[in-house]
């Protein structure tokens, strides 16, 4: 069962301890994120990932409308990936916003040097099944 560990106006973080799975659900208010708030949301995710030794991440970006700038992509690569060494798989539920999804794709290209598999999905059930295969 998922346990809500964090909630803001922009995202929620749920942990399924049994499978070491963290689900970050972006909310429609993500369109109002600022650079500072986006970074804060990512820092919280990194901290929870590190604290709980998360092996599987599910990024639910279906309602993610914030466009991640190149500067922020570099910041995530430099500051967030270091706290996610335990992650083996990342599943991303695709954003409905094409521009936001493109910025997510660019971010994933930057962090792909990390040793975890990343896949994109339209359906949450497919993403969950893939995450639990390993």
Description:
The chain has 134 residues and is α/β, with parallel strands linked by helices. It has one domain: Transcription Regulator spoIIAA (2-Layer Sandwich). The chain contains four helices and six strands. The protein has helices spanning 35-51, 70-79, 98-111, 124-132, and strands at 3-7, 11-16, 21-26, 56-60, 89-93, 117-121. It has a six-stranded mixed sheet with strand order 1-2-3-4-5-6, sandwiched between helices. Strand 4, helix 2 and strand 5 form a beta-alpha-beta unit. Helix 1 (35-51) runs parallel beside helix 2 and helix 2 runs parallel beside helix 3.
What topology emerges from the helices and strands here?
Layout lengths: L2 E5 L3 E6 L4 E6 L8 H17 L4 E5 L9 H10 L9 E5 L4 H14 L5 E5 L2 H9 L2
Parallel strand pairs: 3-4, 4-5, 5-6
Antiparallel strand pairs: 1-2, 2-3
Helix pairs in contact: 1-2, 2-3
Largest sheet: 6 strands, mixed
Count the E strands: 6
Structural class of the helices, strands and pairings?
Answer: alpha/beta
Helix content: 25-40%
* Number of discrete domains: 1
- CATH class assignment: Alpha Beta
| Sheet with the most strands: spatial strand order | 1-2-3-4-5-6
Shape: globular
Distance between the termini: 19 Å
Quickly give the CATH architecture: 2-Layer Sandwich
Low-confidence stretches: none
Mean pLDDT: 88
Radius of gyration: 13 Å
Could you spell the SSE succession in H and E letters? EEEHEHEHEH
Strand content: 15-25%
Q: Work out the helix count.
A: 4
């Amino acid at each position: 069962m998922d346990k809500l560990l964090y909630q803001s106006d922009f995202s929620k973080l749920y942990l399924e301890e049994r499978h070491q799975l963290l689900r970050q659900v972006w909310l429609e208010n993500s369109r109002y994120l600022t650079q500072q708030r986006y970074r804060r949301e990512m820092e919280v995710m990194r901290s929870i990932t590190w604290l709980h030794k998360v092996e599987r991440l599910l990024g639910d970006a279906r309602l993610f409308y914030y466009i991640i700038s190149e500067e922020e992509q570099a910041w995530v690569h430099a500051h967030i990936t270091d706290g996610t060494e335990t992650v083996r798989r990342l599943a991303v539920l695709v954003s409905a916003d094409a521009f936001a999804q493109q910025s997510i794709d660019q971010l994933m290209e930057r962090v792909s040097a990390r040793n975890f598999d990343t896949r994109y999905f339209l359906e949450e059930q497919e993403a969950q099944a893939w995450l639990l295969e390993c």
